[in-house]
Fold this protein.
Amino acid sequence: METIISACISAGVTLVICLLNNHGQQEKTRALMEYKLDELTKRVDKHNNVVERTYNIEERLSVQEEQIKVANHRIEDLEKGERL
């Protein structure tokens, strides 16, 4: 009977220690996941910022290309006028 009681006490203590250990590991894992998520969020924000800037640059480039085309047509018109 004493063997059964001591085995039950030993099992209970072991169970409590396992539960405490698991809880501690869960807290560490949660903290690590939150850290990684924050870092990933920062990287995504940087990426989105680059995408926005690239879009703005492409938009300005297309406007400048159109202005160059217009200027070239004006130059051609002026050159044709001088030939006549």
